[in-house]
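Suppose you are handed only two things: the residues of a chain and a line of SMILES describing zinc ion. What would the bound structure be? This form records exactly that question and the answer produced for it, so the two can be stored side by side and reused later without any lookup.

QUESTION INPUTS
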Amino acid sequence: MKVARFHAPGDLRIEEAPEPVAGPGEVKIRVRNCSTCGTDVKIYKHGHHHIDPPRVMGHEIAGEVVESAAPGWAPGDRVQVIAAIPCGRCAECLRGRMTVCPNQESMGYHYDGGFAEYMVVPAKVLAVDGLNRIPDGVGFAEASVAEPLACVLNGQELARVGPGDDVLIMGSGPIGCLHVRLARARGAARVFLADINPDRLAVAAGLVRPDAAIHADVEEHVAKLTDGRGADVVITAAAAGAAQEQAIRMAARQGRISFFGGLPKDNPIIACDSNLVHYRELTIVGANGSSPAHNARALDLIATGAVPVADLITERLPLTDVLAAIDTVARGAAIKVTIEP
Ligand SMILES: [Zn+2]
Ligand SMILES: [Zn+2]
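ANSWER OUTPUT
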């Protein structure tokens, strides 16, 4: 079979590999869609301390069971696979905080991922209910977007996005688009979308129709749009410290700020006016991936139409074009790019 294997930063190869075999408690799938995101760009360019190459990349995975050595699964089952695998046994997991499991492993990092014709779903994934049946009417490509949507869901739960909120999303990539749609589904009053790249913003805004699309002077615009209150929730879906600093200044009293996107590890320090946090009773939250339960609920949001994703998938490419796909993502030239191995 063909796989896309990471060997070193800048060295991702399409190779022939033997088909994997499902061991006890495992399931083998024919990968039908594995979508790409900024994380794949980061891994391709810089590697990752949890990846010991060579490793098949790809973590937004949907496919069809072809071989099962696990109870409850049979050939023909259409499935979506979690990306982050919690251990299920540590103090955090036992408290239900699976997104911050310190023993977390990931598909495409510790295990071969979905940029391949076939893939084995590790027993550890099945042990934490990390394999989800794709509901009828949901395609494989849409199902592959359940993983990033699950992360977005975790972020908005932590930031308590709810009815009546004015929500500002900074960054109009695929994650920003999912944030706009989910905020609407959760009853937000108005959703604003900001990006410093006007072209990317225009494309995203055309699809997800925010109440305002802001490409410059974001602080002035948000002040004006909210009569000086600020946004009840500000979500940064961009790897920029400057956006995080602005986010704190643009939050309304008792506002919530989600640092959804992480910062480059060599430059993670920002300036924060602590008195804004104190007097305005702000809450700043992080977001670290998603739990298996978030993935199941994300699939449900897609299936019910609460969060449509089909129109966000703007490019479908074969596995042999994975480098072109990663380049497209790096340039921000598409919303969601999916690989169809
Ligand atoms: Zn991803
Ligand atoms: Zn754990």
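WHAT STANDS OUT: The chain is about 30% helix and 25% strand. The chain has a mean pLDDT of 97.
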